């Protein structure tokens, strides 16, 4: 069998690898916003983190990297809510009955397991 018949394994860009590593550090029941992740890494911004998560985040706890307003990922709300309930992530309910993350209580600063990297 020649190497020509093997499928090419896509490489993940270095920045995306770092984003995924941070996502894996976030403890169950806690979240970081896209901007928090960019700040923790010291590079990029919320959009770059969101893009990396959208393209490569399926194998990590994607539900722990969120919008800063606490709105669950559009199109994945039910799956995300299942994870939040299973992990006892702090939630709140809006006046319209919609679920949001309680960002004041759920936000993780990255310091507990990393020795204050941030």
Sum this structure up briefly:
The chain is mainly alpha-helical and about 120 residues long.
Please tell me about this protein's structure.
With 118 residues, the protein is mainly alpha-helical. The protein has one domain (14-108): Winged helix-like DNA-binding domain superfamily/Winged helix DNA-binding domain (Arc Repressor Mutant, subunit A, Orthogonal Bundle), CATH 1.10.10. It is 42% helix and 8% strand. The protein is built from 6 helices and 4 strands. It has helices spanning 14-25, 34-41, 46-56, 77-86, 103-106, 111-114, and strands at residues 32-33, 65-66, 91-93, 99-101. A two-stranded parallel sheet has the order 1-2. It has a two-stranded antiparallel ribbon with strand order 3-4. Helix 1 (14-25) packs across helix 2 and helix 2 packs across helix 3 (46-56). It is globular, with a radius of gyration of 16 Å. The N and C termini lie far apart (49 Å). Residues 114-118 have low confidence and may be disordered.
Mean pLDDT: 90
Strand order within the widest sheet?
A: 1-2
Question: What best-fitting shape do the alpha-carbon axes yield?
Answer: globular
Q: In terms of quaternary structure, what is this?
A: single chain
Largest sheet: 2 strands, parallel
| Helix share bin | 40-55%
**Tally of DSSP β-strands:** 4
Structural class: mainly alpha
Number of alpha- plus pi-helical segments: 6
User: Which superfamily, in CATH terms, is the homologous superfamily?
Assistant: Winged helix-like DNA-binding domain superfamily/Winged helix DNA-binding domain
CATH topology: Arc Repressor Mutant, subunit A
The CATH architecture can be named as: Orthogonal Bundle
Estimated share of beta-strand residues: 5-15%
CATH class bucket: Mainly Alpha
Instruction: Indicate the low-confidence ranges by residue numbers.
Output: 114-118
Radius of gyration: 16 Å
Number of domains: 1
Distance between the termini: 49 Å
Q: Order of helices and strands, N to C? A: HEHHEHEEHH
């Amino acid at each position: 069998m020649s190497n020509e018949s093997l499928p090419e394994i896509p490489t993940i860009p270095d920045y995306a690898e770092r984003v995924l590593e941070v996502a894996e550090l976030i403890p169950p029941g806690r979240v970081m916003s896209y901007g928090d992740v960019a700040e923790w890494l010291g590079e990029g911004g919320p959009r770059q983190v969101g893009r990396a998560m959208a393209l490569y985040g399926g194998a990590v706890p994607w539900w722990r990297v969120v919008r800063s307003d606490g709105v669950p990922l559009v199109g994945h709300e039910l799956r995300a809510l299942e994870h939040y309930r299973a992990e006892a992530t702090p939630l709140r309910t809006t006046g319209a009955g919609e679920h949001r993350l309680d960002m004041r209580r759920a936000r993780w600063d990255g310091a507990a397991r990393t020795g204050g990297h941030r």
